[in-house]
Specification:
ligase activity (chains A, B), aa-tRNA-synth_II/BPL/LPL (chains A, B), 305 residues, 2 domains, BirA Bifunctional Protein, domain 2, three-stranded antiparallel beta sheet, alpha+beta, tRNA ligase class II core domain protein (chains A, B), seven-stranded mixed beta sheet, homodimer, 14 strands
Chain lengths: 305, 305
Amino acid sequence: MSLVDGESALRGALRGAGHLLPGARPGIDGHGPEFEAVVDGLWRAYADRAPAGTPVMAFGPLIDAAQFTATDYPRSFPQLVGEVEVFRGGDPEHRALIGDVDAGRDWTGYFEPSGMTLVPATCQNVYPRYAGTLEAPTTVFCRSWCFRHEPSEDPVRMVAFRICEYVHLGTPDSAEAFRADWLELLLDLFRGLGLDVAADRANDPFFGRVGRMLAANQLQSGMKNEISVDLYPDRRTAISSSNAHRTHFADSFGIRLPDGGPAHTACAGFGIERVAIALLATHGMAVADWPGPVRRALRLGRETV
Amino acid sequence: MSLVDGESALRGALRGAGHLLPGARPGIDGHGPEFEAVVDGLWRAYADRAPAGTPVMAFGPLIDAAQFTATDYPRSFPQLVGEVEVFRGGDPEHRALIGDVDAGRDWTGYFEPSGMTLVPATCQNVYPRYAGTLEAPTTVFCRSWCFRHEPSEDPVRMVAFRICEYVHLGTPDSAEAFRADWLELLLDLFRGLGLDVAADRANDPFFGRVGRMLAANQLQSGMKNEISVDLYPDRRTAISSSNAHRTHFADSFGIRLPDGGPAHTACAGFGIERVAIALLATHGMAVADWPGPVRRALRLGRETV
């Protein structure tokens, strides 16, 4: 049974309750204080599952463009990429830019690539930090803002949003065990928060003709599992995923096992806003009225903001 | 007396202690868990100063480009702007992009303006939300990621960083009172955290020939005060500012008083990472050993991450 009538009903409820603050264009709404308390509670509840000694890494919204290119993301998902351009001109270009601003024209003609892009998944900022020989299988907890250019009126499909993830770097066996174990851990986490979740094989929006083949391969391989909720009447909504990458990122960044072979990597995380919205759709827009166990699991009620 | 020998000593200490995680280019280092706990503690300590009923707004790193243009920032500080470009091509452009990737060339030739830029100051996302008639003077608390393209080896000069601010919208008198009062409140907050701070008139990096005039006007007007610490031997380092904008943003976004005249605005906030680094330089790299009152003010020691 779906939780809400549709996108516009959900968007209206979230905005009406002050959880989303309408932006000037789709996908960049601001957030109110209760929403932020749920966001904080969610990543902390996930961070609490970290084994002792887990490295913790927090990143801003950017990644070095050469590292981003090495992930192969621009090839598979060009339509989602956000590239950052900057102005390196002098007084003449500045005068021309001002002329464009004054005339109400596009003023970005004098901008050029910065060497940075917005990052579409938090784990991309982790792999390059492990270039070289990996002494032992390692699991990292990380979080950051992310960007995917798929503007939509659907309030769960944001352009800018946050992800928190565990990233594993290890052997073929340790990476596959991680993918399976953390899928169960995520299902357990979400069920503990009262969400009616199910695991499915993932179906990413690979681009174009080549992309249709890549998407079919992904479905067949079972290397990526999504966790979804029954938010809307006409489709399930993914809130989380657990992925094994085999040697993809290890090959890109030169992450080797002690025997010289490439490491295997895997990651398991969730879109924090998506889970927050699933909770609001499930337990109601009044966070103060959520069930006690859910509020305690998210440490709600202690914060002033 | 300066706190550290210089930029490279500070950078080395911060990285050595795991507070900064070196990025592939200047200004986009990641952050370790103790650093993040200090960041969280700082914005919460500032949020605690909010009068009852203060609206709270959290934003991602982006702003609508038309709203950004209306702030006049591209005219005054083009060299700091980060503009976001996206790919709207089809299969032929995708093939060409893949060709560029494979040849190791710049692959951004098929990208075009997204209609979004990175936001350089959190308050820019607040003003447009008050377009129209302001019923009474209003103060808002806000926080977000920000971007200013001034890559540097100086660890306090980040390209991506966080700001938290109070923003005031009101009358000429209420805005001027806000600027003066919140300057004192910020000084009090920082002194309570053991920082040796001083207030100065601000000196922003306005661009080019026109910019030198604007900078002189800013110094003379006293409309912007900075709060600085004695971090390095050769200069003071700004960590915070309190600004009165007169009718600048009200004119840009059509924010009017009940009598039909333009509102006056002001804002008072700080660069969260800069204050965190000032605290680390003052109290030492081992956050567990900071003075008890500072740890309590920042609610340190309760978090697992």
